[in-house]
């Protein structure tokens, strides 16, 4: 397997040309859960790409880990029609690359800046959730959950509603079509809406636009078909299990409000 992560300057032009190819197939190397692969899969589905999963299990992973660029998944493999393979590591990088390639990264530089801003605001919330709740110390969990639900998430939600409001009544974060920002925030809401009490500040009265964005994503025909598939059901259950460990009253049925 070609390892493209580190390359010589001479490779750079050639590899850059390969990123422009439109005849590629994709393979997403990740675990059997939605997790950090969810947004990437959604982009591949929305972009009608030719793609498949390469699953790793906790049993198979230790032997495979050293062969990955940075010892973590996801890693994306893109194979062109003539058999060249690009290897791309790191979730954010894969998401932005695919979004650009598949048409979900705005129509000009200014829209890109706005999409990156929306992503940055959302990412801060995800990092707080991940570090203080999902993998944070058990002893600090009650305090961390309180802070997340009373401050971090409600503050973000207000920012996000205002952000969409400034988009001239269009039901997207930026411009007039789905972008990575809409996909990323909707997937975040998929996690958070199941938490008890979140509907006190994410609801039709206080955040109609945020919910409209989620409706646009949830009712997309391609995405809906994928999410109704057996494999997505399995991946989603694995993600939900992580959450029910942290929130005793977690209700996954509240997440897919519109599907
Ligand atoms: N910096 C990486 C982190 C990804 C990450 O945390 N992956 C986890 C799974 S969600 C992983 O590979 N864990 C296995 C390990 O670290 O050995 C990224 O953004 O892609």
TrEMBL record:
Q: Where is the GST C-terminal domain?
A: 108-235
A single GO molecular-function term is: glutathione transferase activity
BP term (GO), one: glutathione metabolic process
Q: Which Pfam families match?
A: GST_C_3
Q: What is this protein called?
A: Glutathione transferase
SUPFAM superfamilies of this UniProt entry?
Answer: GST C-terminal domain-like, Thioredoxin-like
Q: Which InterPro entries match?
A: Glutathione-S-Trfase_C-like, Glutathione-S-Trfase_C_sf, Glutathione_S-Trfase, Glutathione_S-Trfase_N, GST_C, GST_superfamily, Thioredoxin-like_sf
List, for all copies, the residue spans of the domain called GST N-terminal: 24-106
